[in-house]
Amino acid sequence: MTIHKTVFPLQRTAPFREWSPIIHYAKSQKLEQGKLAPRRIYNFELLYVSQGEAATIMNGRRYELSTGHLIFLPSGVLHQNEVVSPGGTRFLGIHFDFFGELDIHTEYDMIVGDAAPDLDRFATEAVPDVFPPLSQQVVYTPTLACVALMEQLVNEFTMRPLGYELACKALMLNILAHLLRLPHSRSHAFSSQHAIRLQELAEEIERHPSAAWTNAMIAERLDLSLDHAAKLFRELVGRPPGEYVASIRHREARKLLRETDMSIEEIGDAVGYSGIHYFSRQFRKHEGVSASEYRKLSQVL
């Protein structure tokens, strides 16, 4: 059978105990405006729009994507991605397979380059018996907790500390669980006005991590009591307000350490920590290494 007559993605019903995802590629990057070449991939990709607008043409349909949207790109399915924003779009991409069945060594191994490829090389989508397959609904709006897991996975895959493969597998399973649950819980969870306000506030925290985001301020912005605000945050974001703010600040600090020449003290001020010693303690607490060590490691890798 040829590739044009094969129905993709290949699928297999499998209980969760058989799921064993392997990460082949995980990266955050900004791409400039324009259309990318049409392609097929041997594995699967979660492509999340961190900032800006994008589009994907797949199966004769154009999917419009904006900040906060994720598209599931199945193995073997021809698609074309486009960066729509004039100033470029920032993506987070994770390539993986469900059963650890592919032998991927480079980025080029993920892309189908032959006109008549070996069909045995295409990864199989795991189909659970209690959820529809992810490929049934390709566009998702992941929760903030899910996005945090994806960012953590990218960091593990990039820095590659001892045992990163195990950590990436665990994170990927958690991410898949979040996505599979979305159609069942998302519409109900975000139906309330308070939840909409929280979503907007969480996005504001991401844009301005250096602001003084106290629990009292967050509760006031949501027009809720401290206890109710904390409960809503846990339900929709997956963690209490203070932990969420700290995670956003830590993510921004990692980015500035990797991508700028700012001093450690300047980065601490930029993400909301007054004083280099306090920032250094908080960074080591979250990352396990000092800020200066993280910067050196990221430059080597």
Automatic annotation (TrEMBL):
Record-linked InterPro entries: AraC-bd, Homeodomain-like_sf, HTH-like, HTH_AraC, RmlC-like_jellyroll
GO molecular function (one): sequence-specific DNA binding
Key word Transcription present: yes
Pfam families to which the protein is assigned, alphabetical: AraC_binding, HTH_18
Domain of life per record: Bacteria
Keyword vocabulary terms for this entry: DNA-binding, Transcription, Transcription regulation
Domain HTH araC/xylS-type: 199-297
Record-given protein name: AraC family transcriptional regulator
Organism: Paenibacillus agaridevorans
Lineage summary: Bacteria, Bacillati, Bacillota, Bacilli, Bacillales
